[in-house]
Amino acid sequence: MAEVCSPLRLPLIAGRKQPAAVTEDVCRPMLRPPSILWWAGFALAFSLLLMGVAAVGYQIATGVGVWGLNTTVGWAFDITNFVFWVGIGHAGTLISAILFLFRQKWRTSVNRSAEAMTLFAVMCAGIFPIIHTGRPWLAFWLFPYPNFRGPLWINFRSPLAWDAFAISTYFLISAVFWYIGLIPDLATIRDRLKPGLRQRLFAIFSLGWNGSYRVWRHYEVLYLLLAGLATPLVVSVHTIVSWDFATSVIPGWHATIFPPYFVAGAIFSGIAMVLTLMLVARKTMGLEDYITQRHVDAMCKLLLLTSGIVALAYATEFFTALYSGNPYEQFVFMNRAKGPFAWAYWTMVGCNVLIPQLLWFERVRRRLVIVFLLSLFINVGMWFERFVIIVTSLHRDFLPANWSGYTPTIYEIATLLGSFGLFFTCFLIFCRVLPVIAMGEVKAVLSHGNGKGGHA
Amino acid sequence: MNRRVLIGIFDSEDDILAATDAARRRGLVIVDVFAPYAVHGLDKAMGLARSKLPWVCFLLGLFGAAFKVWFEYWTTASDWPINVGGKPWNSLPAFVPITFEVMVLFAGLSTVVAFFGMNRLWPGRKADLLDPRVTNDRFALVLEEDDAAFDVDEVKTFLWSHNALRVEERELEVAR
Q: Residue A377: phi, psi to the nearest 5?
């Protein structure tokens, strides 16, 4: 068949690969022993994780008093970290579900690792509210279950109860979606490995998948249904997280703009984290043909879009406060920009609004080192966004007598670093034991832009 | 009971698509097609009916939502009513978020369970592979031979004409 190259459809995967080459390329880094670089990263991440475990252990043994919270600032680092990590997770669902519904075929190169990132980020997020309860062994009280105290039920009118349901549903559905996507790839690896423990594990988890199209037909429908469920779910999750704040009557929190503002911010920070991870993974695992300049470009454009939405939300929030005629609202916002936490506010604006504007330039998007650094800045900026929202709204109470400050203690900082340790430990293990690229999905888009298979 | 089948192995999605479509048009009985990835349009080429999974998803989602509304009403307004900030016992609008989450949870998990059940996939099930490369880069078209009108040589020629890499006859144990 004559090869025709369409100028309108550029290939998604570079190097004119055949399906067998995809299997080869994706399995190669899994099947060779880990590199020195991997061990170095793992050692660092695991040490951070251990430090976090020690800090959380001390906090649970002693009490929440080891944190820098006080009666005025009752939420600070812990809830900041919670919202930050949930937000990171959202990009995984955006890429795996929303872009699937929009038929964005470039997603196939990044969806597997972005979904893994979602799972690990939600795990990190879940830790914070649980340890903040002070008695984490009673965390099951968050759910309604028949008990001998009445039975006494949870308060279904509380956004915090909504949050417990939203986060656990999100974790379960994301985990299932990820596993369903993995099954055909697990079977591919099962049929490649030599008999042994590893092969047996892949055989167990691939559920006897044999590529029968009578199963594939249901599989495709299942994938579509899960994508259709995950899309409103991801919007609902960060909406509910924002209601934790918006349904209270604290100036700076009590705003109707919160749900869209939080959802856009979540996707913004998540895409930045996907870029951070993918730019490192493509280099160290030799996946340059799969995660190409085109993929980086597409994600940079998503960053620009969501940065714009976030910037608009900052401006709207500020304008609405000033225009409201409510002196408390006005005070909170002027205090954010000029008060004791002004440095945090301007870090947030700088990292989330100003620095991403560089991505308008194609020359910047093509310099991957710069894109990598930008993604780090956005991660920092989005962490500060949550810090600003939470702490600056609380530290100046209605009564000046209650005004206070907030400084994190070393236990809080160690817990934050520990959550990064958990995240990167999980991600590094994932890179070693599972295929980081959805082989089955990439093979289906190989013909895209390569002239063959006009039905792509 | 065993079943005699004729298997054609292909290495390109265009060939398997064309061969499957032509086989169905010729009136051959397609036992199954094996593919390493989902090929757009192959289910239509095989003449498969639409999957019923959306019904499972819809009905269980509906059930989950209805169950949760009832449960929230029962716990909050009937079993042990607690006055929270003077809000009505039956605070329906406040029940919406959890109802939505539980609907998604029921719909999603039940669809997955139904998928595993209807395709008999379970942990540790032994995979019966037609060809070791069928999960990597090969496609297999399996045609039933039991029909008296089945002319093996003619069908072999037909498979070869669609660029089959290999054609073989085999006895398959019938499990489905």
A: -60, -40
Give chain A positions within 8 Å (CB) of B51: 217-218, 220-222
Range of the domain at A274: 19-142+153-444
Distance in Å, alpha carbon of B143 to nearest chain A alpha carbon: 13
Please indicate, yes or no, if residue A74 is contained in any of the structural domains. Answer: yes
Q: Is A455 on the interface with B (CB under 8 A)?
A: yes
Read off the pLDDT band of A450 (50, 70, 90).
low
Alpha helices in chain B (DSSP H): 13-25, 42-46, 53-73, 92-118, 152-161
Give me the number of domains chain A comprises.
1
Chain A hits for B130, CB-CB cut-off 8 Å, are 210
In a domain, A454, yes or no: no
Q: Which of B75, B76, B97 sits opposite A162 (nearest CB)?
A: B97
Q: Which of A22, A149, A155, A222 to mutate to test the interface with B (most CBs of B within 10 A)?
A: A222
Considering the entire predicted model, what is its pTM? 0.92
Rounded-to-integer distance, Cα A217 and Cα A226, Å: 15
Topology annotation, domain B2-50+128-173: Alpha-Beta Plaits (3.30.70)
Domain ranges of chain B: 2-50+128-173, 53-118
Determine, yes or no, domain membership for A2.
no
**Contact at CB, B42 and A216, closer than 8 angstroms:** yes
B62 shares contact with chain A (CB less than 8 Å): no
Task: Assign A354 a pLDDT band (cuts: 50, 70, 90).
Answer: very high
For residue A147, being part of any structural domain is answered with no
> Do A156 and B91 count as a contact with CB atoms less than 8 A apart?
yes
Q: Which residue of A has its CA nearest to B104?
A: A229
Nearest residue, CB atoms, B108 vs list A220, A226, A443: A226
Interface confidence (ipTM) of the complex: 0.93
Render pLDDT for A38-71 as a digit per residue (tens, 0 to 9). 999 999 999 999 999 999 999 999 999 999 999 9
Q: What is the DSSP annotation of A307-334?
A: HHHHHHHHHHHHHHHHHH--HHHHHHHH
Domain with residue A439: its CATH number is 1.20.1630.10
A40 Cβ neighbours under 8 A, 6+ residues apart: none
In order, the DSSP letters of A74-121 are -SSHHHHHHHHHHHHHHHHHIIIIIHHHTT-GGGGGTHHHHHHHHHHH
* Distance, CA of A399 to CA of B126 (rounded, Å): 69
Of B14, B51, B57, the CB nearest to A452: B14
Model confidence at B126: pLDDT above 90: no
Measured distance CA(B15)–CA(B18) in Å, rounded = 5
User: Which of B14, B107, B136 shows the shortest C-beta gap to A188?
Assistant: B136
